[in-house]
Amino acid sequence: MKKLIKKALKLVLPIVLGGFILFWVYRDFDFSKAGDVLLRGMNWWWMLFSLLFGILAQLFRGWRWRQTLEPLGVFPKRNDCVNAIFVSYAASLVIPRLGEISRCGVLAKYDNVSFSKSLGTVVTERLVDTLTILFITGITFLLQMPVFITFLEQTGTKIPSLVHLLTSVWFYIVLFCLIGVLVLLYYLRKTLFFYERVKGFVLNICEGVMSLKNVRNIPLFIFYTLAIWGCYFFHFYFTFYCFEFTSHLSMLAALVMFVGGTFAVIVPTPNGAGPWHFAVISMMMLYGVNVTEAGIFALIVHGIQTFLVVLLGVYALVALSFTNKNKTNY
């Protein structure tokens, strides 16, 4: 019974957290305006073009993952690696961070790849991605720091008092986000302690982590990494051209929002729902977009991109079952 409650909490808490943040962000929002824009006020060609980069990002991620697996002496099918990535993103919509486990499970099932070793390569990938986004963040901050200073000077914004801070809705949203991250870290710690009891598991993970030093084509690995994050950015940036009220925003403005949204999705909610909206809306207002239009942008873009994740996940599950009937590699 206790285990059942824990599993239920893991499923329910992220949804509740994301729902709470969405409720506060959109508590006075007129959803009919978003419906009008969705049906009659947006350029769907630009949206479809942006979705292409969302697919490419996952393709590059699948190919890069296969590259880190090769030094371990395993050569899963390229299609399986890509489809495993598709499944992982869709699985994370149900339970945040479940995708890291599910993609390793896919290769274990269809390509006989050691689960623990492949999990080690996932850890390596996450480390590389973390360093990449930190580098992007540093460059963005240096390039756009004057924008924030000008905004504060023009609006006369001052550092809020403690009383104002404690009565602000945004303070509690950030607080709940931090609580969510702490809960996630707690469960990760317990999970690692459990795995440490399994003989050989940690050693296999370490072997997977160290696979990066034996990757045969480092330039190709770097290219895949840059392509992944470049596609993520353009997946977001080209959606600006879908709407008249965001089409004027610069690429640097998009970069600021992209970085903010990337850090927001660390909060364990389904596909970053809630924290991502909060981050993008707040930063878009820095560039002169009013709160209603920023809310419409975040709601429509996040909804369509989430639908793409679901669609790719369903496709991958079907493709895996048809292309692995005989479990043959190439």
UniProtKB/TrEMBL annotation:
Please tell me one Gene Ontology term that the record gives under cellular component: plasma membrane
Q: Tell me where the transmembrane regions lie.
A: 7-25, 45-63, 127-149, 169-188, 220-241, 247-267, 274-290, 296-320
The entry's localization annotation reads: Cell membrane
Q: Which domain of life is it from?
A: Bacteria
Q: How does it sit in the membrane?
A: Multi-pass membrane protein
The record's keywords, sorted A to Z, are: Cell membrane, Membrane, Transmembrane, Transmembrane helix
User: Among its keywords, does the record have Iron-sulfur?
Assistant: no
Which InterPro entries does UniProt cross-reference here?
L-PG_synthase/AglD (IPR022791)
Does the entry feature the keyword Plastid, yes or no? Answer: no
Question: Where would you say this protein principally sits, based on its record?
Answer: membrane
Q: Which NCBIfam families match?
A: flippase-like domain
Q: What protein am I looking at?
A: Dolichol-P-glucose synthetase
Origin species, per record, is: Bacteroides reticulotermitis
